[in-house]
């Protein structure tokens, strides 16, 4: 979902180019000529190459190139120094250029449904990103550079091949939503229990056998989805999640629950 509504934006016609769903395979210069564009959307076209002409519009704040067939992002994307929102989802991209780490105005980055297996180390400079979506890619671990994105509020990494949630996730103190379902996660470090602002944690459809003993420290948590894992037991501290309204434990190996779970009065009953 392209969150264009969350950035205040002057919809002045001369600054806005929308050519969605027009079967465009090559972006013509005439579309861009004579305008100092702030918003470009070429969603759902036939682009194979990233239109280099776009990189000349250094006042661009929002760029949507999702649902094309783009394979490579040019190094010149670094010229888009004022870019706040970038959607490259649903393309054929296997790697992102090191230079993207210089786009320090970025707040929203979507690269879902591509062929990405890693992020460049330079992405640790993206300190202002609050929303990151790398779902449906080829990640085998959470890229280290993500843990330096200190402003992150929402992290979506589902449908990858991620095997663990490492301890340095604690660095992302402002996280409110973590979506890691449909991975290969078997280990969750205690670091996740330091995320005091976390409201939604979805780690369903993984291979998790146990939760951190101190899971109850997540006292802001409202939704915890654990269905389709390999849990044999739950830590007693889970009953300390007093704000929890949704707890999904379906399709696990649980034979009993902590006695105090009956005192979780905010839980919704299905």
Summarize, please:
This protein has 270 residues and is mostly beta strands. It has one helix spanning 29-32, and strands at 16-18, 39-41, 62-64, 85-87, 108-110, 131-133, 154-156, 164-165, 177-179, 187-188, 200-202, 223-225, 246-248.
Structure description:
Keywords: Leucine-rich repeat, Repeat. InterPro entries: Leu-rich_rpt, Leu-rich_rpt_typical-subtyp, LRR_dom_sf, LRR_domain-containing, LRR_R13L4/SHOC2-like. Pfam families: LRR_14 (PF23598), LRR_8 (PF13855). One of its GO terms (cellular component) is cytoplasm. The chain is mainly β and 270 residues long. The chain has one helix spanning 29-32; strands at 16-18, 39-41, 62-64, 85-87, 108-110, 131-133, 154-156, 164-165, 177-179, 187-188, 200-202, 223-225, 246-248. It is built from one helix and 13 strands; from the N terminus they run βαββββββββββββ. The longest helix has 4 residues, at 29-32. The protein is elongated and about 70 Å long. The chain folds into two domains: 1-162, Leucine-rich repeat, LRR (right-handed beta-alpha superhelix); 167-270, Leucine-rich repeat, LRR (right-handed beta-alpha superhelix) (Alpha-Beta Horseshoe). Strands 1-2-3-4-5-6-7-9-11-12-13 form an eleven-stranded parallel beta sheet, with no helix packed on it.
């Amino acid at each position: 979902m392209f969150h264009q509504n969350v950035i205040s934006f002057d919809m002045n016609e001369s600054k806005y180019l929308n050519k969605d769903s027009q079967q465009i395979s090559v972006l013509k210069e005439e579309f861009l000529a004579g305008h100092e564009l702030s918003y470009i959307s070429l969603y759902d076209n036939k682009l194979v190459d990233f239109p280099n002409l776009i990189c000349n519009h250094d006042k661009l704040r929002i760029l949507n190139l999702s649902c094309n067939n783009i394979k490579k992002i040019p190094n010149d994307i670094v010229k888009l120094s004022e870019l706040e929102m970038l959607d490259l989802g649903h393309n054929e991209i296997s790697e992102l250029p090191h230079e993207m780490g210089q786009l320090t105005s970025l707040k929203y980055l979507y690269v879902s449904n591509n062929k990405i297996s890693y992020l460049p180390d330079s992405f640790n400079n993206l300190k202002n990103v609050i929303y990151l979506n790398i779902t449906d890619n080829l990640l085998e671990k959470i890229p280290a550079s993500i843990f330096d994105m200190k402003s992150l509020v929402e992290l979506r990494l589902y449908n990858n091949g991620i095997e663990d949630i490492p301890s340095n996730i604690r660095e992302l103190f402002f996280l409110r939503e973590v979506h890691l379902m449909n991975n290969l996660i078997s280990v969750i470090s205690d670091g996740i229990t330091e995320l005091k602002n976390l409201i939604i944690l979805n780690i369903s459809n993984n291979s998790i056998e146990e939760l951190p003993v101190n899971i109850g420290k997540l006292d802001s948590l409202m939704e915890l989805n654990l269905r389709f894992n390999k849990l044999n037991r739950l830590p007693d501290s889970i009953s300390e999640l007093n704000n929890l309204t949704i707890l999904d434990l379906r399709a696990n190996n649980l034979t009993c629950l902590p006695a105090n779970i009956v005192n979780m009065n905010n839980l919704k009953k299905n």
